[in-house]
Amino acid sequence: MCLQTGQKVQERAEMPIDISRANFSLAQHCFFFDLDGTLAPIVDDPSTVAIPDDFKPALARLYSQTGGAVAILTGRGLSDALTILDPLPLPVVGSHGLEYDARLGGSGDQSSAQAALKEVLAPLQAFAAAKDLKLECKPGAIALHYRHAPEHAVAAQRTIDNVASFASGLRALHGKMVSEVTVASVDKGTALTTLMSRTEFAGRVPVMVGDDVTDEDGFSAAQSWGGCGIKIGSGETCAKYRAETMAEFHHWLAKLVAEGK
Ligand SMILES: [Mg+2]
């Protein structure tokens, strides 16, 4: 995954354009959003994350004004993400592209993914216990969280890399203060491409917004459909546009919705 993402970063050599210069249409574009660090501020305890109350009306209006051409693409498990979004009507693809909301057609059989993850659970449990790190088991991934213990970041990343290389069908994915072993056959890019064939999205131009390296697959997929990625924050990216902060992106989106074009 790291190499793939690195390759995608190198696909676009130009500097991202400031988001203030992006000109999108509610009638012609569709929107895919990451959750943590994009719609909701990142917090030390991932279980307490929340979308700011003053931003929720803009998301609800975007969903309505685009005729439902909005989806959340997140590394969180589906049910976890739906709880955070409630009562917003936005549908979700969770677990980095493995779990589809029933409103997006559902996920089908996940037994092979779960069998592959089961193979690497024991060594990850042992590592997490030894370092007092939080281990999160999701339907399509096992995540090691080290936001509260950044001194273990390198060891955690190495452990995830090791287990991913020993088991077939899995890959390592390193985000902000979290490293995961996930199913290799799906990512946010495959999710975006799958959704583009649905009636809500077909014929529209995709915009993918995210803040982390795990969103690069989504940026690349959106741009391969003639759309664009919007990277929030600093760091290398293949995205065409950049917002310096999450607040800047929220302000930009609220303005787009208020203008209603
Ligand atoms: Mg994020």
UniProtKB/TrEMBL annotation:
One of its GO terms (molecular function) is trehalose-phosphatase activity. Pfam families: Trehalose_PPase. It catalyses: alpha,alpha-trehalose 6-phosphate + H2O = alpha,alpha-trehalose + phosphate. The keyword Transmembrane helix does not apply. Keywords: Hydrolase, Magnesium, Metal-binding. One of its GO terms (biological process) is trehalose biosynthetic process. Its cofactor is Mg(2+). InterPro entries: HAD-like_sf, HAD-SF_hydro_IIB, HAD_sf, OTSB-like, Trehalose_PPase. Its EC number is 3.1.3.12. Gene3D superfamilies: HAD superfamily/HAD-like, Trehalose-6-phosphate phosphatase related protein, domain 2. Pathway: Glycan biosynthesis; trehalose biosynthesis. It comes from the Bacteria. Belongs to the trehalose phosphatase family. Removes the phosphate from trehalose 6-phosphate to produce free trehalose. This is Trehalose 6-phosphate phosphatase. It comes from Sulfitobacter brevis. The lineage of its organism: Bacteria, Pseudomonadati, Pseudomonadota, Alphaproteobacteria, Rhodobacterales.
